[in-house]
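Batch manifest line 482
LIGAND: flavin-adenine dinucleotide
JOB: complex structure
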Amino acid sequence: MPWPAHTARHNPAMSTAIVWFRRDLRLADQPALTAACAAHERVLPLYIHAPEEEGAWAPGAASRWWLHHSLAALDGQLRERHGHLHLAAGNSLAVLRQVIADTGAVAVYWNRLYDPATIARDADIKRALGEQGVEAHSSNAALWCEPWRIATQQGEPYRVFTPYWRKLRQQLDDVVPLPVPPLRCADAGASLPLDALGLPPVPDWARGFADWTPGEQGADEMLELFADDAVHAYATARDVPARHGTSRMSPHLHFGELSPRQIAHRLHIESSRTDTRRRPDIEPYLRELGWREFAHHLLYHFPKTPTDNFNGRFDRFHWAARDEHALTRWQRGMTGMPLVDAGMRELWATGWMHNRVRMVVASFLTKNLRQHWLEGARWFWDTLVDADLANNTMGWQWVAGSGADAAPYFRVFNPVSQSQRFDPEGAYIRRWVPELADAPGKLVHAPWENPAWLHASAYPQPLVDLKTSREDALAAYGAIRG
Ligand code: FAD
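JOB STATUS: finished
ARTIFACT:
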């Protein structure tokens, strides 16, 4: 049966529009919301729970915890404005049609996402709504620059970060974020209760996530803290896992609780303050956000890379057989490599891990244990609160050596020298691996160097020998070189 054409279109200014929230859970600098409020009398804020539409990459457990609290926060903000977030579950197009029928909405507004499953789904929905006579408008809320807007001189996507960044950086100085628009909310009858979405884990292993504050207000506070303080030392402190030297904004960015435009704007204000002695160098930080943009650029242009090697040569790479025992010890932080175990335990306890340690644990898994990078990517997907298909794919392929602009395969991170360099006193290790809290001096980096001490402690023997496992990895790489 053809869907009946909509009839209430003659006066858009008196009409209702749906704002379909997805990973843009904020009210400020929210282009879809701003556009809908400008063109229509009322808006219906809607969130549709449809994890099966995200294909193999439906949100993992830690992300669902975050999503639950972020939706609650957005609903709270809307209630302060005499509205609420309308929650629904099921096929997105069917839900949209139902809500259109219930509210008489004449248009649907959303912000674009860049993972392949969502792109395909959204294109189908745009077409179907158009056929029904309902306008569909999409905007960019997540990136400084959408993936198709930057290309090499030959019109190709970039595969190397530095020239990509040089081009993107020129565009960042004049960004001004949008304010929260004046808002009149429509009603669409009964909304699902948030608990009905069943997002938080059962049993509740996420108690250690209590330091996070999901939602736009939490994101704003994080940005203020960072701009006031940590950004000043970011260039040096960002590599020290024992310090709060990075912004920890990754989950807020992933869920769209703040935008990279807002961050750039805030940091430009900070750096243009007249007191030059306090003026921070914001470039190293903007460059990291540039990596995030680059990851989205890659995912958009190479949509198979969440599962396929970016560098096809790695299709011939001889991974070790899947080793359940080694994987479990890696996941639980019981490999006997202190920095690796500290990182994996931080991840389990807090849903987040410091970037330097992410590189070390990923290198240990893919090179010393020679397990396929997808094993690690999937574990991160389930346990990170910032699990993000673009960043996670790029991060794993970069470390494994199979990615665009990747670390050369022969670069095997040595967990001992990495902790000696970036955690010299072992403060990070001692915090996350209590068995090593009292390890004397430098032994904290390599406790096997004193077999008697290790034997008497509760800490495990190393899962592999660093030297021989490195040599094995290099030999396997040698076989696919050239
Ligand atoms: P900051 O140092 O404060 O950086 C600011 C922002 O820039 C981050 O929030 C993030 O959005 C972006 N950014 C920083 N470094 C990178 C990078 N290397 N690649 C892409 N974006 C970056 N990041 C995720 O957001 N989600 C993931 O699922 C993810 N998986 C990763 C897996 C591996 C194996 C590796 C090596 C890295 C991964 N990263 C991922 C990138 C990086 O580790 C995190 O973005 C960073 O640790 C988040 O902490 P922060 O917000 O304090 O970062």
